[in-house]
């Protein structure tokens, strides 16, 4: 340390700290999405008729008027900004198709949960609770109650799964399901 003056060492430490902070922020790029610990991975959100979150189960191809796929976070409508990590598929159905839905408020009332509970779909928190959920798309509902150290209830989150358990986590490149036969090719 003979070549460093005390002032020079201070600059080096500040530069190292700033470098670490920048690297840490860059590594945390997922922080724009507010989500639960368990969330869908790799599967896009499916929105039908601009206000119904669901999946394509029960929808026949001849009932679809148009499909639009958005993958870029910067071009997403504000309403889906927290839900678009893996893209959003917007499906417009012909006017003759009727989908049974439940509002966030109706689901909370059905579960007997207090009004200030947070609401999530497939592990991603809804910023706008005016969404409707297709009842046929609901696969599972989890009511997560967080408590503090003394056992007092701090908050409640209702998570609605629209994906079956096997569809919630996408296959990562190079990984295969244990039930797959060698030589099976997956096209993504």
Describe it.
This protein is an alpha/beta fold. Helices cover 16% and strands 26% of the residues. It contains 2 helices and 10 strands, in the order αβββββαβββββ. The longest helix is centred in the N-terminal third of the chain and has 22 residues. It is globular, with a radius of gyration of 22 Å. About 7% of the residues have low confidence.
Brief write-up:
This protein has helices at residues 6-27, 104-111, and strands at 45-48, 52-54, 64-70, 88-93, 101-103, 118-121, 124-125, 132-134, 140-147, 153-161.
List the helices and strands and how they pair.
Layout: H1 6-27, E1 45-48, E2 52-54, E3 64-70, E4 88-93, E5 101-103, H2 104-111, E6 118-121, E7 124-125, E8 132-134, E9 140-147, E10 153-161
Parallel strand pairs: 1-4, 2-8, 6-10
Antiparallel strand pairs: 1-2, 3-4, 5-8, 6-7, 9-10
Rounded to an integer, what's the Rg over CA atoms?
A: 22 Å
Helix/strand class: alpha/beta
The tally of helices reads: 2
Low-confidence stretches: 22-29, 171-176
């Amino acid at each position: 340390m003979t070549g460093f003056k005390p002032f020079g060492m201070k600059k080096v430490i500040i530069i190292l700290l700033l470098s670490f902070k920048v690297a840490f922020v860059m590594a945390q790029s997922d922080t724009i999405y507010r989500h639960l610990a368990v969330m869908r991975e790799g599967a896009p959100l499916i929105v039908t008729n601009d206000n119904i979150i669901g999946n394509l189960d029960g929808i026949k191809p001849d009932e679809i008027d148009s499909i639009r796929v958005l993958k870029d976070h910067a071009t997403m409508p504000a309403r889906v900004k927290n839900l678009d990590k893996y893209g959003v598929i917007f499906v417009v159905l012909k006017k003759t198709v009727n989908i049974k839905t439940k509002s966030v408020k109706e689901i909370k009332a059905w579960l007997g949960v207090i009004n200030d509970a947070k609401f999530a779909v497939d592990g991603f928190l809804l910023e706008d609770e005016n969404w409707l959920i297709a009842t046929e798309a609901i696969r599972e509902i989890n009511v997560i109650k967080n408590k503090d150290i003394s056992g007092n209830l701090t908050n409640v989150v209702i998570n609605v799964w629209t994906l079956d358990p096997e569809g919630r986590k996408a296959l990562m490149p190079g990984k295969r399901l244990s039930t797959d036969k060698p030589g099976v090719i997956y096209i993504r």
